[in-house]
Amino acid sequence: MPPIGIGSNYSTETFKTGEAKLWLFLVGVNEYQDEGLPSLRYPAVDCQGLGEALAKATQGFPNKEVIVHNDFAAQPPTLERIRESLERIISQTQPQDSIMLYFSGHGMLEPENQEAVLCMSDTRISDLLGTGLPLQELLQMLGTTSANQQLICLDTCHSGDMKLLGGNRGTARSVNSAQTLFNPTPQLTKILQQRAAESKGFCALLSCDQGQQSWEFPELGHGVFTYYLMKGLLGEAADSHGIIEADGLYKYVYRKTLQYIDKLNQQLRLINQQKRSRGDSKLHLEYPLQTPKRIVEGVGELVLGYKGIKAESHKNRRAIIIDGLSNNKTITDLGRLFAGAGGFEVESFPASSKAWSDIRGTIQEFVRWNGESETKTSTQLRGVENKPTSLLYLRGRIEEIEDGEAWLILGDGVRLSRSWLRQELRRSLRTQQIIILDCPEATSLDSWIEDLQSGAEQGQCIIAVACGAEEPELFSQALLETLVAANPRVGLSVPKWVTELQKLLQTKNIELHVWLSGTQAVIDILPGNITTVFQDFPESEVAVKKNYEKSFSSPPQPPQSEQKSSVASAIANEPSNIVQPQFSLAVGTQEYTKLEQLVKQSIGPIAPTLLQKALTKVANFEELVDNLTAYFSKEQQQEFQQRAMAILETLICNVPTATNKTIDANSISKCERELAYSVGPIANFIIQEVLKSHPQISFSEFVKTLAKKIPNTKQSFEFEQRMLGEKNNTSTTRQK
Fold first, then answer.
1. Which end of the chain, N or C, is more open, meaning fewer C-beta atoms within 10 Å of its C-beta?
2. DSSP strand E in 166-225: where?
3. Residue 231: beta bridge partners?
4. Last residue of a domain, one of 631, 653, 675
């Protein structure tokens, strides 16, 4: 009889009291004795880093044991040592215990018997079954243990030292032929599915799907799959109660792995666009997809730890905002947004504590900062932290002189020469740079961008715009609008931001000048996982100019179906008395006004834009409050939620029971998130069209209809299986 899954509440209590024991068995293999098995760069480091992350996550578990085998550990990852450790675990586990087994290294398929084998340091290709650990044997061993909960994480099918950026741009080093011919992923999947069907307490996570590879990125210092396992265990995959369990961890790793590779490819596309503009035909190849895979049939939940109390730190992201033209309130809001959603430690000019004559020294100190002295992170976890990033925003007038030199004119007549700024920027060797030039009426921005470029090894993005004299603040307003429109929890890469800026500025015939270096690392303007959008500056308060929302709106708008204006413009033209966004969520005039005033008390005049943007995305009043809460500081969030729900209480109580609606809003939201991975932002449009044309559609038919909208047959099938499987699991849980 298969073991019964343990619910998360029970697991949590038994771990906290020490009644249950958590066994953590971690294996990582870099170097292989057989020359036919290519060396890998990061499995041993992955193993060490994951061990440290698990140690932090399980600090509250008094009864646990961590067993580590890797190239750098006291116990090497040989087959004999691995078997000895497994036998000890099996002999000592109790029914209430849980086991997490992690392996990073080569996996291969034995050609004659078609068995999937995990390769240890002394494995020989000529005798895979005798010198490696067949997965079937591993599962049989685990099947004899008393532990009801078992999680296996396999980071195999590595790309080795392949890379498409940096020194080998546009190419990939060849993979060992044996690795290519005998890829074990299909067999791994089959065996694990059989095991999962036999036990409700069994779950397996694979780093990639069939036909894919696990990517290793130098800028992460880890394989991407394990990198996000670590970040998830360090708290980012925790639920609202701070609990980290296997299901939530998988969903986090799946989403973040896809997002990271997508960000890299966005960056590559922008770099390729620059190459084409110069007539360069040697373009970079994009990274193939890597989609982590989960195999689970039961309903048990394995608790892996808790989110520790961690003070927010912005020490790896610094920004200087220099407004040399006027006391622009939009610039003030930009600084607050960079400090909040952007995670930057922000310094602004003009400032009461410093004179304009101090600006050169401030910039010099800024560019020499590299983040290391303020990063108090252990060696193995350092790769998990944000890469040091510096942002320099310069707003001023440009003056050209005859000898080819140019000057940026700031406050009090302070002048910075282009050559001086170039020299200073090139002294920054260890941080990613985001340089923004806001120079109304300038005519030589291309020369500035060309001069300020750093070497290809340094991550750098330069964005420059010259607005006309009649509307000099359009660019800063565009920066703020595109950043406010982004989700601070998801984050925003610089290439994606550039795309949004280009779309917005084209409506005003303003040219955006951009340079992005050929760097491996992703440059984020918003790093994600941030709950506070605006951070309060003690010396000022939010005061967006009244014409902010009008700057990018058109004259009298046509019907909404014909509008092509920006998001803010479209929202501004909605009727103010009754808001009727998606899913027929209606807010009356009185409640809407009260809610808008409540948001405005902390956020300021930009509150109407944020509120109406939220109304276009949510399905119910609870989601509306949750969406708006993200814009408040942690200290303000609880009070805002209570007051907002009090305002909406009457509406919530009077919402009629929609018996004709067969699909709940939560299921629709899940479908949209999953569909977006395959079709992008158009997912929301597709879902609305299906719901509109089939108002009485069942959930299963709804999912099947959406699956048909996915061009890739494999992804379409997986979407259908995943969504219908989750629905069935949810129903089973409720019945129990």
1. N
2. 202-206, 216-217, 222-223
3. none
4. 653
